[in-house]
Amino acid sequence: MTKSRKFKTESQQLLHLMTHSIYTHKEIFLRELISNSSDAIDKRHFMSLTNDKIPKENYEIKIIRDKKNRVLRISDNGIGLTYDDLVNNLGTIAKSGTKEFQEKLEKKDSDLIGQFGVGFYSAFMVAKKVIVETKSIVEGKSLKWSSNGISSYSITEGSRESYGTEIQLHLREDLESDEYSKFLEDSEINKLVKKYSDYIRYPIKSYNEDEKEEKTLNTMIPLWKKAKKDISEDDYNSFYKNQFNEFDEPLKVIHSSVEGLLTYTTLLFIPKKPEYNFYSESFEKGIQLYSKGVFIENKNKSLIPDHFKFVKGLVDSADLSLNLSREMLQNDRQLKKIASHIEKKINNELKALLKNDRNKYEEFYKNYRLSLKYGVYDMFGQNKEKLQDLILFETSKSEKPISFKEYLDRKPKDQENIYYATGKSRSRILNLPQMELMKEKDIEVLLCYDDVDEFMFQSMQEYDKNKFLSVQKANLDIDKKDPSKSIKKKKEDQFLVEIKEVLKDKVKDVVASKRLSESPVCVVSGEGLSLEMEKVLNQMPSSNNVKAEKIIEVNLKHRLIKKLFKNLELKKYDIKYVANLLYNQALILEGLQPKNPKELIDAITNLIE
Ligand code: ADP
To answer: How far is the CA of 149 from the centre of ligand 1 (A)?
Structure first.
């Protein structure tokens, strides 16, 4: 039964990169293989908890240094690999779907190896040939996988008797730059295990083929169980990369222990950047769960609220019962307690970051603000009190984002509301006709670029008793003389009435503007839905074409408008075209598409004629 198969394309690319790498940290192959072995033992252990047929063992990882044959063997008594595992897991890159990974691969970025847990394939950095002898607990068959890491591998029947896996590395010839035989030295292996794999929970033993001498190299204390003062930043970083397959260092590490009726340790990380699928449905949140250092679950969802779903990490508690099924664990009261602690802890850390390291917070905020904003909006604003002080906005006066509290601290005493405006970009918003009055009155306005912003304000209603008001709505709550009252001339009224007559199917009202100075017209929304919300809601798949109330405001002091109403009686122009031109002009400035382009073009044509 010999089967030869080709590696998947991206695997071939990665293998090529591995074997031609000038990467200096080739030693990480050992960390990767040990970590795979440890995972495999975890899996076996977990299965044995619910299945009596699985034989119990003294779990261990052996490193056998066969100097005579220049072979290094890493062996475990874990779950083993099935035939399909060999094809699917060793023939393809586990994370090959991620965008960054593909991109880096295309750029032949050799740093990739250090940044990414490339796993099993890293063996080819030091070996010209790799043989995997395995016997799966699930399948019960002995199989032998072998490859020289170029384009194909073969799978044949194997001879392994006990369950588990052995990876045999036929080391490359020594070069001046790379002395591979050092990996057969006891001292080197000892050093590497200490450096990278000390926290692995199973004994890692080193054997010499001749002497059969063995000793346990690792202390087996998981990183999170060590005293904080004994953990360096490097320790945290390399643990994080290794444990969560990350490229980058974390933005923030949160490590805490709680003792009491319920004793547990949490080690949490905020990734620098969101995962490639973070904002899609395929993203799965969750925290790893351990009981007394033994792995239970990879992504426990109940431990982390949606608004902090970007957090990675683990919880280890001696008080969680391992006999519970996973479903029961979800509802465990103890887990709820831990979850509430985790939420508070993250919240406090973020607030501290905002206070003490503004730049770092802003970097964080750029990446994760949508999560926080949805958190405020979600569940009818249930979490708004908790989250609102983590929210920042650029304003008309400051490109650096500020918090609501900062906004209130610097607003004049007599200003009662918090004003905001929505649009695609800073310049788009600043050029809105509705901003003219705000500029004139020197009122600071929050600039909203995200779809969720207005929904969030609606669910917040107010901050510290100050109402949120959109400058794009009819009611602005700002004192300003009403020119229609002071001017109150027949002609102006007549002009507005005639325009309204033309636009009656499109708008709720046409009124004299109290806020415009430079622009002739603008569109605002009335009660209820805003224009921005109309846009967002109508983009949703379930949309049933909702409509915001549109009100056209006309600037009666504008030179164009003055000319228009003076010439109205003389019938020097067709009011139909003029009304449509003004209407569409207001829509476009607001970032809305003219609903009927032909009508607009007709009006323009008429004007040119
Ligand atoms: P990753 O560990 O990131 O998934 P690897 O390339 O290191 O990627 O390994 C691919 C897969 O091969 C693992 O997920 C696991 O299913 C399987 N595997 C690797 N080493 C072992 C082992 N020693 N025992 C059992 N399965 C293994």
So the answer is: 16
Predicted confidence at residue 570, as pLDDT, reads 72
Same domain for 230 and 211: no
How far does the centroid of ligand 1 lie from the alpha carbon of residue 40, in Å? Answer: 8
Candidate of 10, 18, 30, 36 to mutate for ligand 1, largest count of ligand atoms within 8 Å of Cβ:
36
Residue minimizing CA distance to atom 4 of ligand 1:
94
Q: What is the CATH number of the domain that holds 410?
A: 3.40.50.11260
Q: What confidence tens digit (pLDDT) does each residue in 430-453 have?
A: 999 999 999 999 999 999 999 999
Domain housing 449: 392-470
Confidence of residue 97 (pLDDT cuts 50, 70, 90): very low
Last residue of a domain, one of 470, 504, 537: 470
Distance of alpha carbon 311 from alpha carbon 364, whole angstroms: 12
Nearest residue (CA) to ligand 1, atom 16: 89
Please check whether residues 441 and 540 belong to one and the same domain: no
Give mean pLDDT, residues 357-364: 97
pLDDT tens column, 110-123: 555 544 546 788 89
Instruction: Tell me, in angstroms, the distance from the centre of ligand 1 to residue 124's CA.
Output: 15
Q: How far is the CA of 592 from the centre of ligand 1 (A)?
A: 52
| Cα dihedral 223, 225, 226, 231 sign | positive
Identify the CATH number of the domain in which residue 284 sits. 3.30.230.80
Q: What is the mean pLDDT of residues 189-196?
A: 89
**CA pair distance 75, 62, nearest whole angstrom:** 5
Tell me the Ramachandran region of residue 380: left when phi exceeds 0, alpha when psi lies from -120 to 50, beta otherwise: left
* Cα–Cα distance measured from residue 483 to residue 480, given in angstroms and rounded to the nearest whole number: 9
Kindly list the protein residues whose Cβ atom lies closer than 6 A to any atom of ligand 1.
Answer: 32, 36-37, 40, 76, 78-81, 85, 89-90, 94, 117, 119-120, 165, 245
Between the alpha carbon of residue 281 and those of residues 101, 240, 388, 487, 542, the distances in Å are 20, 24, 25, 57, 16
Look at strands 214-216 and 402-403 and give their pairing. unpaired
Q: What count of Cα atoms within 13 Å lies in the side-chain half-sphere of residue 20?
A: 9
What is the model's pLDDT at position 567? 82
Residues 255 and 173 in one domain: no
444-to-132, 395, 398, 439, 578 alpha-carbon distances in Å: 66, 7, 9, 8, 34
Residues 352 and 453 in one domain: no
Give dist(CA 144, CA 330) in Å, integer: 39
Q: Residues 203, 232: one domain?
A: no
pLDDT of 133 over the 50 cut = yes
The number of folded domains in the chain is: 4
Å from CA of 121 to ligand 1 middle: 10
The minimum-distance atom of ligand 1 relative to the CA of 78 is 24
How far apart are the CA of 87 and the centre of ligand 1, in A? 11
Structural domain ending residue among the three candidates 216, 246, 270:
216
